[in-house]
Automatic annotation (TrEMBL):
Function recorded in the entry: Catalyzes the formation of 4-diphosphocytidyl-2-C-methyl-D-erythritol from CTP and 2-C-methyl-D-erythritol 4-phosphate (MEP).
Protein name per its UniProtKB record: 2-C-methyl-D-erythritol 4-phosphate cytidylyltransferase
Pfam families in the record: IspD
CDD domains for the chain: CDP-ME_synthetase
SUPFAM superfamilies: Nucleotide-diphospho-sugar transferases
Keyword Nucleotidyltransferase: yes
Site residues (Transition state stabilizer), renumbered to this chain: 21, 28
Enzyme Commission no: 2.7.7.60
Family from the record: Belongs to the IspD/TarI cytidylyltransferase family. IspD subfamily.
Higher taxonomy: Bacteria, Pseudomonadati, Pseudomonadota, Gammaproteobacteria, Pseudomonadales
Leading EC class: transferase
GO molecular function, one term: 2-C-methyl-D-erythritol 4-phosphate cytidylyltransferase activity
UniProt catalytic activity: 2-C-methyl-D-erythritol 4-phosphate + CTP + H(+) = 4-CDP-2-C-methyl-D-erythritol + diphosphate
UniProt-annotated site: Positions MEP for the nucleophilic attack, residues: 162, 218
Amino acid sequence: MSAAMLPPFWVLIPAAGVGSRMRADRPKQYLELAGKTILEHSLACFLEHPQLRGLVVSLAGDDPYWPTLACAGDPRIERAAGGRERADSVLGGLQRLTELGAEERDWVLVHDAARPNLARDDLDRLLAELAGDPVGGLLAVPARDTLKRAGADGRVRETVDRAPIWQAYTPQMFRLGQLYRALSDALVAGVAVTDEASAIEWAGLAPRLIEGRADNLKVTRPEDLDWVRRHWARKD
Ligand code: CTP
Ligand code: MG
């Protein structure tokens, strides 16, 4: 499908986390990867897309790194205030998108700042598959390993059927108004939401799973960054 046939969309990048599991000297989205920061790589796939309407990055209030990046001067990118939890950062970003002219029914793609290896094919497939969907959905990867349920004693209680289990990736694509209401209602209710889809599920809707590439991984621990560096070195 040609890019012009794909629906227009807005992008929101929550980038206000501290990266505690990475144990680096700065938040992981600002670590270097192939001559740029991880965050700049995470933005790149969207900035090259003709259907992009605008992009918001949610940042911590005291973030000294963002202003040093070349993309901080890009007129298509706006900042929003991040919050204590990821869901707070996403809500702040959705508010900012509304100020920028995004409307209730517009598609918003939320993508982790620490996911630098999103392929254009995956992005386009997500957009194409969900363009006419009443709910929206997310890129996801079917579980590959044999799964075990543990008991409190740390021993295997049972082997779990892997077939219906997926790992939730990003981008996650929902309508602005629906996502905003689901997230804010979930927060008011005290429900812990770790991704956008779980807020939509909590609201009683069923997001669609769109199979994506497993190498669109989130950099969480030091070995993940080592893996992406090696993966890119092999690709070149
Ligand atoms: N995030 C955010 N605001 C928060 C927490 C997280 O915008 N209050 C963002 C992160 O910057 C990241 C994405 O949400 O882009 C996914 O979160 P995660 O991988 O958990 O990142 P961190 O919270 O930074 O890492 P950790 O949990 O290891 O501290
Ligand atoms: Mg976190």
